[in-house]
Design a protein that fits this description.
Layout lengths: L3 E7 L5 E6 L7 E4 L6 H14 L4 E5 L18 H10 L11 E5 L6 E2 L4 H12 L4 H16 L7 H13 L1 H8 L4 H16 L27 E5 L7 H18 L11 E5 L3 H4 L4 H14 L4 E7 L7 H4 L4 E4 L7 H12 L9 H7 L4 E5 L11 E5 L11 H10 L3 H4 L8 H40 L8 H4 L3 H16 L19
Parallel strand pairs: 3-9, 3-10, 4-7, 4-8, 5-6, 5-7, 8-9
Antiparallel strand pairs: 1-2, 1-12, 10-11, 11-12
Helix pairs in contact: 3-4, 3-8, 4-7, 4-18, 5-7, 5-16, 8-10, 12-13
This protein binds adenosine-5'-triphosphate and magnesium ion (MG).
The site of magnesium ion has 3 residues, from helix 1.
């Protein structure tokens, strides 16, 4: 087994091998640079090198060009000659080969569908996905809690909608235990779900849900699976993109055992267009992601963010990214220059060159690199000519991709949705009983009103003060209800909420 992955050649004549040590690959990383400077090819060569070293990887493929990992490069390719020349300069014996790719797609078109249940997503991430207010989030928490208590599986969005409808209809009973729930809040959540469905997310929620071990496969030649998530369409729904990737991280965190500092990672993630993960994400959620990123290291998971500028990543997270590949940054405006300077300052100095100048000057497919060394200390920065890829530059054809998806043994497991009995079906059945009960309750209420009228009339005749309150009415007052809900949100976020808001980002009652 090698102890590092070869990234390129550094030093004065690019002849010194630059390696990212597998031992420190779980200390996360950053790949940054202006558009067209070589970020995607860097991800491509790293993903394939991890795979060759037996480490499975997961990459989000924003432009479709990473699908080229699934085919070998070719001597007939127009870039063959420059690749050979580049390989020679850095002392690499370049041979072409394809990586063992698995294609995934939230919509199930360009790959196997990726699904999660509503319960697994959990109220916190779902609230973010639905862009809910704090009060609405409180109502969603109650919905989850009641579903849990009553054994109503929340699998797809139909389940969630039925659960909320039930909550709306049974406000008075629920209020006795949890505080009132305003119809306005329930309505707002229902509308947000509708919008999410319009974004095409309905198919994402349900079963069969993704099993993480299917991302962590190693083939019979010892190569790690290269999982490629089609993300072109996903980019148009940035909140879905962000919450989905956060969910994946949190699931890994929840499910994987503690391994300390392994010889090589169990899985490496590459998140492209990382700025979309953080744009507009509430501070509370960013804090949790920061926490998960820090803790997931000891589960052997490395996370690599890809973005144009390091400043796109929140500072607390940026500080955790030990392995760095900085492609060229432009410096046209005063602000560019300032940002470039800031980026350069985060690198360990090299007495032989100015890092700031190097970041401005490096050519396409060249970068300032710094990888963690002994004891996890950042290595001296190098100007590195990145190696050419062994797999194809540019996307697979639709036919090539289709052939890979069709021949994958994961197809039978995931390609067809399953709709088993869950909250929606159970509540629909119960609705009949509820309707009957409601009719009965209405009759009883009428009876009570008749009695009250008679009582008042009797009191008037005796001249006494009417003192019976109409508290039943005032308890459904909305302001009061929202205040109680808010109190409950606080309670749920405290100790009593642990059971529901599983772990750090977690969902609820996992599919066992
Ligand atoms: N390591 C490399 N070896 C050989 N050629 C490279 C390398 N890196 C980049 N190139 C060349 O540069 C082109 C652009 O690189 P790439 O697509 O990786 O840029 P990018 O930073 O991802 O751009 P964008 O921001 O537009 O996505 C590639 O198509 C390839 O021709
Ligand atoms: Mg790119």
């Amino acid at each position: 087994m090698t102890d590092g992955i070869f990234v390129g050649g550094g030093g004065a004549d690019y002849a010194e091998a630059q390696e990212l040590l597998l031992k420190y690959a779980n200390r996360h990383g950053l790949i940054a640079g202006a558009t067209g400077t070589g970020k995607t090819v860097t991800v491509q060569i790293m993903a394939q090198a991890f795979s060759d070293a037996g480490v499975p990887v997961f990459v989000s493929d924003v432009k479709g060009d990473l699908s080229g990992l699934g085919a070998a490069g070719a001597e007939t390719h127009k870039l063959h000659a420059p690749f050979m020349e580049r390989a020679q300069r850095i002392g690499l014996d370049l041979t072409y080969s394809a990586a063992p790719v698995t294609f995934w797609d939230l919509w199930g078109i360009q790959g196997h569908p990726v699904r999660a249940t509503v319960a697994e997503m959990g109220p916190l991430l779902l609230s973010r996905m639905l862009d809910l207010s704090e009060v609405q989030e409180g109502v969603l928490n109650i919905a989850f809690r009641i579903a849990d208590e009553q054994g109503l599986p929340l699998l797809d969005l139909a389940d969630l909608r039925s659960m909320l409808a039930w909550l709306g209809e049974n406000r008075s009973e629920v209020s006795l235990q949890y505080g009132n729930i305003s119809p306005a809040s329930v309505g707002a959540i229902q509308r947000s779900i509708l919008m999410l469905e319009n974004e095409g997310a309905a198919g994402f929620f349900g079963e069969p849900a993704l099993e993480l071990r299917d991302l962590m496969r190693v083939d019979d030649t010892g190569r790690g699976a290269v999982n490629i998530l089609a993300s072109d369409k996903l980019m148009q729904a940035p909140r879905l993109y962000a919450t989905f990737l956060f969910w994946l991280l949190s699931e890994l965190f929840e499910e994987l055992p503690e391994v300390g500092d392994p010889d090589k990672p169990k899985l490496v993630f590459f998140f492209d267009e990382a700025h979309l993960l953080f744009d507009g994400t509430p501070k509370a959620l960013v804090d949790k992601v920061e926490q998960v990123a820090r803790l997931i290291r000891s589960k052997g998971v490395g996370v690599y963010f890809i973005t144009q500028h390091p400043a796109d990543i929140p500072e607390d997270i940026l500080g955790q990214l030990g392995n760095r590949i900085q492609h060229a940054l432009r410096a046209f405006t005063a602000r560019d220059k300032k940002n470039l300077k800031l980026a350069a300052e985060t690198y360990r100095e090299n007495p032989t060159f100015s890092i700031e100048e190097a970041i401005r000057e490096v050519g396409v497919g060249e970068a300032v690199t710094s990888f963690l060394e002994k004891k996890g200390v950042p290595g001296v920065s190098q100007r590195t000519l990145i190696r050419p890829p062994a797999s194809r530059i540019g996307p697979l054809t639709v036919a090539e991709r289709g052939a890979i998806v069709a021949s994958s043994d994961l197809g039978p497991k995931y390609d067809k949705p399953i709709d088993r009995e869950s909250a929606h079906e159970i509540l629909t059945k119960r609705a009949e009983q509820a309707a009957a009960a409601a009719a009965k309750a209405e009759a009883a209420e009428e009876e009570a009103e008749v009695q009250e009228r008679e009582y008042r009339t009797a009191r008037r005749y005796t001249g006494a003060r009417v003192s019976r309150s109409t508290s039943r009415k005032s308890s459904s007052d909305e302001g009061f209800g929202e205040a109680l809900t808010e109190a409950l949100v606080k309670e749920l976020k405290g100790t009593t909420g642990r059971r529901i808001v599983r772990g750090i980002l977690g969902g609820l009652f996992k599919a066992k």
